[in-house]
Amino acid sequence: MTSSARPLSRAERKKQELRREIIDAAFECFAERGYHATGIADIAARLGIGHGTFYRYFENKRDIVDHVIDDLVARISTALTAENAPDAVSTLEDYREQTARIGESLARIFGEDPRVPRLLLVEAAGIDKAMAERVLDFFDLAGTLTAAYLAHGVELGYLRADLDVHNTARAITGMIMAAALSSLRRPEPAHQRQLSEAIRRVMYDGIAAHDTPG
């Protein structure tokens, strides 16, 4: 099967690369300085480009922050696909391994780059009302995804039949977000691994079906 998509020209590739570089530079500036303290001049100076070049790709500072958040959400969503999809496992043992993989992936995203939790969980909600709503939408989406994992486990019998799926999902999401925030003060990998393990232990002991081995 061949693709009918036209190959990008060198100029088009260069434009895409510069656009990506602007998003990355904005991400760094917003996380380091804060959204309101960052100006277009700061982003342009970091890349060594003029204001005019910036405005050929983005309307303003508020426009680019949407793309930055899009990028962060996409990175998190990627951790929840393939072998880590909600319906990818069928036993409690597999579920334990799956949640460990997801925990490691999220720890890399939030722990290895402190700009991620600082921007997504601290800075973004204070930008304006629309962005605050978007952050809340992200939390709702995270809760919905977590509920899908739990509902699958209840359906197959390796999680408790009486599990309050939706509220448990919100509680788990809250623990994960709190762990992400803790990385701002305690970014050491050992601490983050211990915290992740503690969260998983609560999940297993609290929601596993009592007659399910492993």
TrEMBL record:
Instruction: Please report the stretch or stretches of sequence annotated as the HTH tetR-type domain.
Output: 16-76
Question: Could you cite one Gene Ontology molecular function of this protein?
Answer: transcription cis-regulatory region binding
List the Gene3D superfamilies hit by this protein, alphabetically.
Homeodomain-like, Tetracycline Repressor, domain 2
UniProt DNA-binding region: 39-58
Q: Which UniProt keywords apply?
A: DNA-binding
- Protein biosynthesis is among the record's keywords: no
Protein name, UniProt field: Transcriptional regulator, TetR family
